[in-house]
Fold each of these.
Amino acid sequence: MPLNVNNFINSLNLKSKNRDFQDLEHLDGVSISTVCANLYSKFRDDLVMFYFRDGANYASVYTQSKIVSENIKWNLNIKSKKISSLIVNTRNANAFTGSDGYKGLKEIAEEAASQLTEKQIEDEDSPKKISSNQVLFGCTGTIGEKYPTEKIKNKIPELIKRIRYTQNKFIWMKAALGIMTTDLQPKIAMEECQIGNKSVKIYGIAKGSGMIFPNMATTLGYIFTDADLSNDVLSKLLKKNIDTTFNAITCDGDTSTNDMVSIFSTGKVKNPIIKNINDKKIFNFDKALHLVLLNLSKRIVKDGEGATKFITVNIAKSKSEKEARVIAFSIANSNLVKTAIAGEDPNWGRIIMAIGKSGVKIDLKKLSISFGSIKIIEKGQIFKNYNENEASNYMKDQSIDILVNLNMGSKSFTAYTMDLTKKYIEINADYRS
Amino acid sequence: MPLNVNNFINSLNLKSKNRDFQDLEHLDGVSISTVCANLYSKFRDDLVMFYFRDGANYASVYTQSKIVSENIKWNLNIKSKKISSLIVNTRNANAFTGSDGYKGLKEIAEEAASQLTEKQIEDEDSPKKISSNQVLFGCTGTIGEKYPTEKIKNKIPELIKRIRYTQNKFIWMKAALGIMTTDLQPKIAMEECQIGNKSVKIYGIAKGSGMIFPNMATTLGYIFTDADLSNDVLSKLLKKNIDTTFNAITCDGDTSTNDMVSIFSTGKVKNPIIKNINDKKIFNFDKALHLVLLNLSKRIVKDGEGATKFITVNIAKSKSEKEARVIAFSIANSNLVKTAIAGEDPNWGRIIMAIGKSGVKIDLKKLSISFGSIKIIEKGQIFKNYNENEASNYMKDQSIDILVNLNMGSKSFTAYTMDLTKKYIEINADYRS
């Protein structure tokens, strides 16, 4: 199963090297298979299947948009406690495709379930019947275009034929490449940790902002672990950690109809049973899951459209986390802040503006602002040793840290974003010309 | 009092012709005077005084930002029922200037009050003493820089010396030019109407988005009428009309610390007394005021940074005006919508996205979307006669109308914005290089 060169060419745009990626190896209980279903005009992997031969517990979080794609409706309707397969297609978001789009998924799920049942009979000592409501879908790409049901359904046999029970780093890379739209880089991350005295793996892949007519930014994230955790525990851990990772990033403040992050637990490692996420034994897993989600989230931002700078906005000592979040995103979503950073300009006036427009009441006399370790505002006044040249120099860095200390409480929130450049406009306005 | 050429050069960038502007003539009870106080490095009018020799009733609305400039604090503290003067400076926003900035205004107000009192003695039969709390301030420009108190105070005698009691269109143009920062065009508008059987004038000037280090978008609007209306009636009329005019525009979703719109009534026309804004006699004035405010607002958007297209976003048949407003601004502030329009791309998928992310619950099956007269979505589906070429052609227009019909109620809201272009990034990122 060689790497599809066309997927890799994309990822070379940013001159990323193999060493930039962690080595994801075998993760027991999950199999990956990728094909080219000709969803694009060029030849590239665009359809990925994850197969859990013994099923997987799972949990998902979905876009907050009030208009959601058909696959998210499908996923929300699934009543099965165990998932057998996750199928992800690119190029078509299956949003605004109406009952046809939903029916397409049903057909594909039935085809996949029937053929995976046959594979169970071939491969397993005690084969299980797999039903269509054990198939989850991720869709990303164009909205409003007819869903390519036939193209995808026709590739199910090939996807299943390609299933191998031992994974390696190339197969994970192929999966990460296969779910990309116009991402420049694949996004993979991993951690290992202990639950009780058992070692478990947490592997993740994601895709970020992609643009295809009529295009919108979409985010997909899939996490896999060989740990044995219930749907309930997975759901609580995912929700807890998503707030400070995938829900802490913004590229342009626009939300897709298709965003989803899912976690699958194959249960191959027989760790102690966890009934409650406050159980100390899950503490390390919780932390490691956060790291994987944060790692993927940051990779999405770094690969944001036209990005030249990675920006961290940390709001400290707020009265509530909610207020800190509102201020952080007011700054992170401000075009004026983002263009100033693109221009390498330590334009703190725009930070003040963004704090002010957030609507959160602050005590100006207590406000401190720093860029990295450079103090700019202290107790509501320009810091006495503030040196504009020093600040200008700092703005040349690739990573810019904005620290706003409200000195009003004990809560904090960190948002991640990138700068706003001409390249962003080019990608989003000029791509047709 | 010749026009300052440097102010006009700015305004010629867009090749505007004199006929693009209405002719504001004499408005009884208001005098205008402009000078160059050397607030910029180049010679241009940057300080404007409006003088109401017999006082003026007035009302103001201010920025919703939680961080406001010192002049807005000053204005909010004024207890006087009548205003004698409005002084507007550019180049310095007097925001984040602390007690020094406030003290500066106090000094200038005292100087102006004392010298205007002397002018009263010279010019009036029954001279009145003018006090410092009859002076209102508009400031716009850099934030966080020391307020140029001395430069402004030293120019008060010259401002007062230049006061003439008869205004003409050049004087109004000078005032509109004198309050600009990096606006490309002056913004003036006028209407005439009747209150009872009396003809009254409503004149207005405004400034829009301007960028000077550390720069932020600022909006100032000043309306003058010779009608005789109380502070209470002015305040109610202004608040009522601001929602659908100045508060219906967005350039980049960022809010300044300095925004203000004020209305002044000189009372020179002895129209019937209006006690209640539901009085039929004020109906025409109400409508005319709306036109003046809307005219100025649209001029601000058209002159928005880097704008090449003027975009109207009309949300119709909503359950509530609030929901219509939320959806309208979700579209109008979306970078993806604005870049698509810059690229002349009828990318309706992004409109759907922006409706979805607004958080307002809609009934997808009832949704219709048009670009101008071109139907795109009808009852939640792509319109059967939708023709992509026709839509692409429409996008070449300078004015783009987006109409979203929710078919869920009877309320509506219209927002105005412009496209997001590389020029915007240039102005806001590259201006220092």
Amino acid sequence: MAHAVSPLAQPLPDLPPIAGVRLGATAAGIRYVGRDDLVMVELAPGTTVAGVFTTNRCPGAPIDWCRSALKGGKARALVVNAGNANVFTGRAGADAVRQSAEAAAELVGCRSREVFIASTGVIGQPLPVEKITAALPSLHASLAEDGWERAARAIMTTDTFPKAATRTARIGETEVRISGIAKGSGMIAPDMATMLAFVFTDAKLPAPLLQRLLTKGVATSFNCITVDSDTSTSDTLLLFATGTAKHPRVPPEGGPILRGFRTALDAVLHELALLVVRDGEGAQKLIKVSVSGAVSATSARRVALSIANSPLVKTAIAGEDANWGRIVMAVGKAGEPADRDRLGVAIGGVWMARNGTVVEGYDEAPVVAHIKGREVDIAVDLGLGRGAATVWTCDLTHAYIDINGSYRS
Amino acid sequence: MAHAVSPLAQPLPDLPPIAGVRLGATAAGIRYVGRDDLVMVELAPGTTVAGVFTTNRCPGAPIDWCRSALKGGKARALVVNAGNANVFTGRAGADAVRQSAEAAAELVGCRSREVFIASTGVIGQPLPVEKITAALPSLHASLAEDGWERAARAIMTTDTFPKAATRTARIGETEVRISGIAKGSGMIAPDMATMLAFVFTDAKLPAPLLQRLLTKGVATSFNCITVDSDTSTSDTLLLFATGTAKHPRVPPEGGPILRGFRTALDAVLHELALLVVRDGEGAQKLIKVSVSGAVSATSARRVALSIANSPLVKTAIAGEDANWGRIVMAVGKAGEPADRDRLGVAIGGVWMARNGTVVEGYDEAPVVAHIKGREVDIAVDLGLGRGAATVWTCDLTHAYIDINGSYRS
């Protein structure tokens, strides 16, 4: 775990308290030695919850639990451990989740299905749940409104820096806050929440509305990032609303009163998602891939992901090589409508290729200068329609091999 | 290009002459210095031809040419260059192909559409066709029946060893030979021929039958290998039959008389495909992924490719880490029918996980010993149906990053 901090890291923002949220972390000794690895959050009575989970067909036991618990729409506690994902652990894995939830429920004084559980770490090893249940009572006794940073650090695995984002918004005249923490570095690909992220607000919003806001916000944030095209078995994004803020009642359909809240929520989700890419295993560069001129937004996203997941594109960027031919290849392999002879490719705002061939008088110098920076912009215009999409990824470097060739040892 | 020879390399077999095939190579100076980079093959009058090409939507100009020429079903010559793929080169690229074909046609005394063209190398740079047309006359004068090794070497790009395979078969009582050469190392993914490969036989077979044999043979050979999931813009597999062997007439539908020939052809295609994986960029280990128990063969192949293309699986194998959890992840992310609680995973014939959890008393020692070898077998049983498929890939190592972070420099 002793990898250097990503050069793309961002400092942890200051996270003010959110009424109705008390949290903390402790070292339960699940796998790591000498660091926090267990987080508990207690939520005020009346807290509603929404969630998005991995689409992987072999999800971990905590995913099964959360999907079921989410049907109630209510949450009183969250328990998260790092170091062991509790995936592919059979009946024992399901039992472990139930035991954790029951232990937390007893401490909080709620039903076990109001407790949400997430685990991240190695797959296929039995979770030592007795270490969690043994640590929970004193952890619960220590929960506080200011435990954000410690919680953000405790959920890290191969992450090299803690990740959080916060915004305020007004509902009517009342200020509400939205804060989130996230972890994720490898096994990151879209079509799900792609890591663990927990977002909290003091707004008072019914669970179905909260779910609609979250599902919509995910489409352009967590579902538009990829590190290595590998889809985790544990991805979990939960959004909790404690309802402690005294704002005007929000109607079930949301509507104009929520405009500012939606914008702030989308900003928190977007910032958290980009922090995950910034900590992509071995990342040296943040890559933004914008595709326009596609036959539809869905088609544009598929082409953008084909580029963002191409090992040859990602190694070229790592090598600071403006090899736009590989971008052409990645467009073509996506299987989406594309016409070689209308295609344009730009890096750093400089169009290098247009209409199926290199731009006349193309000067590589400004592109090379751009690609040597920490943030690289790739743009592709398919020239077919009005569909557009943007996704983010990172480069593929030696450090990715280092980290993943020895993760368990 | 000065990369060490792959530890998975196989020695070049001795390739006896095939009546009706004369070939050679020369240094045309297209991109490389001091090595052959241009191959010409002259084929006897009456030669039939079949082909399979990339499914990439941005194919190179030579692909357009070959697809059109293939409609005639006849071939008299093949011209191949290495160092420049003539992809995304617009009108000039198409003109270059036509000029090469016309120059070869004049030397051979045939129509230009009986000349097949293939190019491999960097994308997006104009092909200096004048170097090809200038080199062709003396190259043509030097063609010989024994030019196989030189041709196999001249088509290499990032390849670290030349690739060829040969077999004999009987049609009736007459022995015929099938020999092929191939190149390919990176930008290798299925759904196409996935590189350049040229296979020759002295059998006399009508073009439509030849095409059916090739299409069928590709499904379980070249379309079941992957190095990096990236689909080349230039992949070309051509099969030429000179018809010089004096065997009984083969009916248009083929039938039992071709049984031995089909087996031998499939063996040549399979051997060539595996040679490409053995030379996968940076490969240290050959990985065989067998999936059984799927709902269909198509589903099994998709699951196998999801495993074979997973960077996390490939880096784990590179690190000699029997991390079967990542195999579970890759099964789940394929999006194909899978039931976590029926899934089994084996490495080196040892079942590590069954029915959704680790096998009781699982001993990692024999698996670790197996994974330290050059050839690693992964087996997955989905436990759902009778669909099965096998694909081959290689591990993902530092050398892949080295090679692809500096390909153009």
